[in-house]
Amino acid sequence: MNPSDPLNFDRHTFGSDFVWGTATAAYQIEGAVDRDGRTPCVWDTFGRQKGKIKTGETADIACEFYDRYESDLLLHKELGFNAFRFSLSWSRILPDGVGPAHGGRINEAGIAFYDRLIDQCLQLGITPWITLYHWDLPQALELKGGWPNRKIVDWFADFADVCTKAYGHKVKHWIILNEPLAFSILGYFTGQHAPGRRSFRNLLPVIHHTALAQAEGGRIVRQNVPDALVGTTFSCSPIDPFTPGDQSAAIRVDALMNRLFIEPSLGLGYPSKELPFLASIAKKVAKPGDMERLAFDFDFIGLQHYFRAVVEQSYFMPYLWAKDVTPLRRNVQTITEMGWEVYPESMYRIIKQFGQYEGIKKIYITESGAAFYDQVEKGQVHDKARVEYHQNYLQQVLRAKQEGLPVEGYFAWTFLDNFEWAEGYRPRFGLVYVDFRTQQRIVKASGRWFQQLLTEELVAVR
Ligand code: GAL
Fold first, then answer.
1. Has residue 241 been placed in a domain?
2. How much is the mean pLDDT over the chain?
3. Where, by residue number, does substrate bind (predicted)?
4. 1, part of any domain
């Protein structure tokens, strides 16, 4: 489809049960990092080290969502979304990292904050979707070894138990992890994200403990909230070879980027045929019985898709023997502020790829969106490129749905411009512009486009 082709959908084309939401994460929006008993998480510590956040900024204030959630949710309602995805700050709820089962405290003020937030959603008719872990590991647990320490599986189980007991009677949509691949690789192998550790030695334990926590978390939610829909999310991208000779490189990158965490949860084990170094997990890291414990029958899988990847063979990248061919090198015209290629068809392809797994019952697009440079002109933000991004990616979601793939919702990343991890506040992904000096909110043209799609009885027009 060409950007100039007319759209051929309105919200009814997606069906009346289709979920329309935005996705957010606690650390990126809340601020209030030292209020009401919250203790630091790895991002607080990492962000204070020189040079870790490109712009030198911190998330201490972010969008002040901790104080502004009521008016922000009213705005969210006004835009017409019927679901709101947010995550729980682990160290706001369990300031010691561990829960009562391991001698830690529950912070009642932290519990109360999310309780108010959930109630506000419910009062407005917005379905709350909770993510248990969106990268903000309590620093107290990093000091005890973090994800490379096998005890993390029990610590995470404590957290899941406390949260589901607190909110399970009201919240029926639960996501265990946000993008396990991103936080394990960037946090413990390349060191670009918190806690900023760089070691190959840690990588396999981190992967294995994460995959175990993913399944264990699923079991706890199901046990404590039997009527919940339980899912987890994956970052994913179709992988294309740069030249026909790069086919095997593409297969290896696909195994790493798209298969590493879904396949163990489906009982298929790690993709060690394509990535032989993963075989050491079963031989050296796993304990007896672990390989069976990796499986859990999730009710849904959340796909988080932004771009496709094109790769080539590389002898300089150990274990993977492949590297990315950047959009710049490929002369791609439409690139976002993150340097990602805008390539709508990749949305259709990735849904199709995951739809081929027998064990996947339902798919939600739990994140998709784009950072473009935004300018406020006479109090307005005309983010045409972002409008087109969502229109064209949604068109491809619809294409997959019309072919019978079980895709049942779309969460735009993201509601408000926010703290974009190691990039600071510069890349703006929001449907709502945030002036970080004044905390003023301005609904962008993209937010208005969703509002029109979701609230008006009109065929969507450009
Ligand atoms: C995802 C992540 C989000 C957000 C987004 C845009 O990987 O879950 O927190 O940062 O990317 O980069």
1. yes
2. 96
3. 28, 134, 178, 306, 413, 420-421
4. no
For residue 100, how far is its CA from the centre of ligand 1 (angstroms)?
31
pLDDT in tens, 87-143: 999 999 999 999 999 999 999 999 999 999 999 999 999 999 999 999 999 999 999
pLDDT of amino acid 458: 47
**Ligand 1 contact via 234 beta carbon (within 6 Å):** no
Query: Measuring from atom 4 of ligand 1, which residue has the nearest CA?
Result: 420
Helix (H, G, I), strand (E, B) or coil at 294: coil
Structural domain includes residue 3: no
Is the link from the previous residue into 427 a cis peptide, with omega within 30 of 0? no
- Select from 305, 367, 416, 423 the residue to mutate for testing ligand 1; criterion: most ligand atoms less than 8 Å from CB: 367
Percent composition of the chain: helix, strand, coil (DSSP 3-state, to 5) = 40, 15, 45
Cβ–Cβ under 8 Å, residues 258 and 271? no
pLDDT for residue 462 is more than 70: no
Put simply, whether the predicted model's pTM sits higher than 0.70 gets the answer: yes
Among 305, 301, 261, 271, residue whose Cα is nearest residue 408: 301
**Structure tokens, 88:** 């729980």
3-state secondary structure of 140: helix
Contact 178 CB / ligand 1 (< 6 Å): yes
pLDDT, tens digit, 9 for 90 and up, residues 309-354: 999 999 999 999 999 999 999 999 999 999 999 999 999 999 999 9
Task: Calculate how far, in angstroms, residue 86's C-alpha sits from the geometric centre of ligand 1.
Answer: 12
Best probe residue, ligand 1, of 87, 186, 420, 426 (max atoms within 8 Å of C-beta): 420
Start-to-end C-alpha separation, the chain: 14
Centre of ligand 1 to C-alpha 46, Å, is: 17
Based on the structure, what is the number of domains in the chain?
Answer: 1
Question: C-alpha distances in angstroms, 97 versus 71, 106, 147?
Answer: 30, 9, 12
Joined together, the tokens standing for residue 259 give 């298969």
For residues 118 and 412, what is the distance between their CA atoms, to the nearest angstrom?
Answer: 19
Look up the domain containing 450 and give its range: 11-455
Could you tell me if the CB of 282 is within 6 A of ligand 1?
no
CATH label of the domain that carries residue 348: 3.20.20.80
